[in-house]
Amino acid sequence: MLRSTLSALAFTAALTPVLAADLPSRKGAPAAPPVLSACTESEGIPTDAFGFTTGSDVAEAGSFGASLTYGGGFGLRDGRQAAHGLQLQGSYGLFPCFEIGPYLLGGYADATIAGTGADSRSFGAGVEMKYRLLGRDLHGIGLTVVVDPSVNRIDATGAGQFTAYNTGIRLFADKTLLPGKLYAALNLSHDLSWIGPSPYLRSSTFTLGGSLAWQVVDGLYLSGEVRHQRRQNELGFGDNAGYATFAGPGVFWQATKQFAISAAYNIQVAGKAKGQPGDLDLTNFSQHLVKVKAAYSF
Questions:
Q1: Which residues of 61-78 are buried (b: 16+ CB within 10 A; e: fewer)?
Q2: Strand (E) or helix (H) holding 62
């Protein structure tokens, strides 16, 4: 019995190469192409490379970062103003294409209007939520939609304490013009504000901004941007209170793999406040804007 089994196995082993040789040859299966999605790019563009304008990239799923941003506004009609604000923000890639960024706010304004002190202090919090709709590799442009609700508690000299609620709805778009060198970004945003005490005053600010960023050397970007803003005394686009156009330069430096610093300056070059003389709107907007941001990714 054992001998018969061994003979059968030997015969099968000898026959297998012959049968295999009679089968048509098969080519190796081609490698699967890389899966493209709006969340992955062959070349990333730093979101802060465009000055006040923002790029469309979002944090990768599971990644975490933190940033500290200083914002300053200077210049006011019929007086003087020096407004300073700080924002401490964390950002986390909650799942592919979606980034959530809670933040804390604090501000102080030293202002005098028509000889009367108008100082104020504020503190608050908010959460920025980003979802990437389009990717540059897949669609030619990057496009991200953003919803940014926040609340501020304000203590103003002569006006007491009150609360301000704001909801920002934004679109961030960017495109590679020259790989490794030149990039463009376009932002649309509409900020809706409710300012108390009750009955709440309603207002809104619409912003259209565009910027070009040039990578001078690896990790160092210089930018130039133009932004147009319009203030309304309602949540929609009617009852315009004034408008202003800003322009200015920016710089971004990726100092290390984890740490980056950026700065931007805008000056109001044109504008008009409703019912006010002059070629600038210094009633609703500052004349000079400054932003400095330090960011660290873990």
A1: eeeebbbebebebebbbe
A2: none
Tell me how far apart the alpha carbons of residues 102 and 132 are, in angstroms, rounded to a whole number.
18
Nearest to 251 by CA among 48, 35, 37: 48
Q: How many whole angstroms from its chain centre is CA 79?
A: 33
| Alpha helices in the chain, H assignment, sequence order | 2-22, 136-139
Q: Does 130 score more than 50 pLDDT?
A: yes
pLDDT, tens only, 150-206 = 999 999 887 778 899 999 999 999 999 999 999 999 999 999 999 977 678 999 999
Say if CB 122 and CB 134 are below 8 A apart.
no
Residue 50 burial by Cβ neighbours in a 10 Å radius (0-12, 13-18, 19+): buried
Alpha-carbon Rg for the chain in angstroms: 28
Tokens for 118, please give them. Answer: 């108008």
Name the β-bridge partners of 223. Answer: 213, 250
Domains of the chain: 64-297 (2.40.128.130)
**Which of 98, 104, 109, 59 minimizes the C-alpha distance to 86?**
104
Across the chain, how many H-helices and E-strands are there? 2, 13
